[in-house]
Amino acid sequence: MADSILTAMRSDAGWMAGALALARRGMGETWPNPTVGCVLVKDEIVLARGRTFSGGRPHAEAAALEAARTLGVDVRGATTYVTLEPCAHHGLTPPCAEALVSAGITRCVVATGDPDPRVSGGGLAMLRQAGIEVLEGVGKAEADEINAGFFCRVHSGRPMVTLKLATSLDGRIATAAGDSKWITGEAARARGHLLRSSHDAVLVGIGTAIADDPLLTCRLPGLAARSPVRLVADSEARLPVTAAMVRTARSVPTWLICAENVPVERTAVLEAAGVGVHRLPRGVDGRIEPVAMLQALGARGLTRILVEGGGTLAAALLAAGLVDRLAVFRAGVVIGGDGVPSVAACGIERLVEAHRFSRLSLGETGEDVLETWARRA
Question: Is there a catalytic annotation at residue 271?
């Protein structure tokens, strides 16, 4: 009996691994919806697979069921492996839980629950009421991490923030003269582009936008279409109309976040070029308040933001407790104390006040090292 239970657990974990891989593929392109993977299995054979499509529709379960129909496969009596609780509410599409019941699924293995108040246990209840066996928690930790941004938006109204830093061993991002190309190597830069593809948006401050004139696109082979929305925190709307992000705004979305009292004529030329302008109240220091900015971006549906510079923006987000993850690329270079720090002054006088993170991973990227960290609760 114990052996049969162990075998079933191994099988469930294996099939769920396939569903989680599908979910990961959708990271950065399904917002405002979560990214979900679904695998239909019967008699140890995969009948069909599906994942949430770009823009969040159709859902993974519906995609898998449609794939089965297209193949002429009978899914009655099958087990569904799905990375997130099937939805239970009528929105732009019917409930996925209802579709699974109608399809004759007899067992559903779910990695993690959906905290959306419109679902939150309702999908699982619908399945159980229909007599479907439900097993929860298989692959939960990975499923939670995949949709950490969606969960953050549901719980706090803002997207999850990952601060990306590419530094020397002593934490510098440029020399005193501003020379920064390139501290890290080609492999690390390619990994940085891959990070962009898995986020809904990439954010920089106006200082970085002017100094570096970055494109902020994903320039890996086959992933050009996965470039995220480009965001510039620019309280005074100083972004030049000649900037690369402005010149390409009609092909890759570019949003400018500025103060609400910036003269209209200053932003009109940017809007004419295709830049989306979002006006917000100023904080007490005259700049856009970070919490208000992220709440506004969450209201627009963004769930995952990658922050790529500069040090002042990084310090403001850290001070506000808004950095959820760190992705730190470190190169075997020492620049010295007169170099530009990766994070500007935070005003911390006692070590107990320091921002603390727990390491998630450590690995080599070419000759450089990539560490990922999660903010401690």
Answer: no
